[in-house]
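ugh ok fine here u go
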Amino acid sequence: MQLAQIISSRFKPLQSRFSRNNEQTIIARDGVCLPAGPVVPKRPKNNLAKAHNSDVLEIPCPDPTAEDRERDFHQQRGQRLSHKEQWAEIAKAIQAADRCLRKTEGGMPVADLIGFGARADVVNACEHALISGKPEKDAPMLAGIEELETVLAENPSDYAIATVVAHAHMDMGWSWRGSRFDIDVSETNQNAFCAHFDRAADILAPFSELKPKPAFLAAAECVQRSGRQDGNAKIADAYATLIDLDPSNARIMRSMGNHLLPRWFGDYDTLELEALRTAARTQDTWGAGAYTWVQFDAIACDDTACARLDIEFFVDGLRDILKRTKDQYTVNLLAAYCANTMGNATGGSDEADQIRSQIGDCAKWIIREYLTELHPMLWAHAARGFDNNLFVRCPDRFAASGEADALPIIGNVFRRDIANGNRIVFTDDGPICQPA
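structure:
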């Protein structure tokens, strides 16, 4: 059977069921970058963020949207090459970035960004057809993915191209399914979700024994595992393989912790066990920090996971992360997480709230000992729970909201110094007090 016939047999029956009365919901994809947008104009590097009373607090705020623009650059590169049908160049770019585990300053793998850009048009077209909830009966839902399948057929042994196509199927599957509970997903949407994920599994299967395993491929296998009904069977093993390939990538550990929650594919005992195992395996890289990374997002969205946290080990992990990674992106990430995501959150559990309070207190020493500049985008994301699916329409306004959140928190850390008539100036060596 020809490849086009295989796709047709899987998806055309679903497409034929589209109607104006068949409501669909667009969904974002867990852990996937947002679509590329226009390049944001570069800001002056020495821009200073100051409190409303500029006599008391001064902190450098270099180019707040730099991370977003860097991500856009790599995404748009992949998108431009796909427009020109230069798939050999896309594969080379992905493989080159994958070999050296190249990342943006914020820790996003460049290979992932190029791959997302390469499939963005296909995924966005699918989402656009579903966004209104009433797609046209003859909506061309399969045209884009069929073109990608043709590219794959022409390059059957290229893992980079195969992974891009598999990701496109999985993105489209999530667009059908959404993040709702299974009981709330219609049969049509669930069938489409399963069909796309089954096809992704078929695409990735020939590369399962590839040695050495590329991190770009291993990450796709984790995503594919997360979409299967038996995903809990080997999800931890899939993540462990990926972490061993790229132990410096904290995003992988954060994603694993989230997927080990009971709402996904694990349970609280497994979450704790895998956090400890990951810390042991990556001790040379992170010390106790991997325990903190694995628990990072899980405890932010689950009261029980938070209440069960080994808080002393978690705080040890924070300190080990900052000893080993002193870049200001990470410092701001951890400070904003402690102060905003956890410190300003309350739930329905006294035990969890007590843990949150202790984590919130860590922001004080992080700011005093490690902060030298402000990254307001991170503070804005922290205030919104680091929502992967958040769409930022105006980066400048979003950054301004993060600055507005951060400055009072930072000022409060130094309230006694300020009350004694000092102003706080952040330098490359940390904050110093000067007479106001």
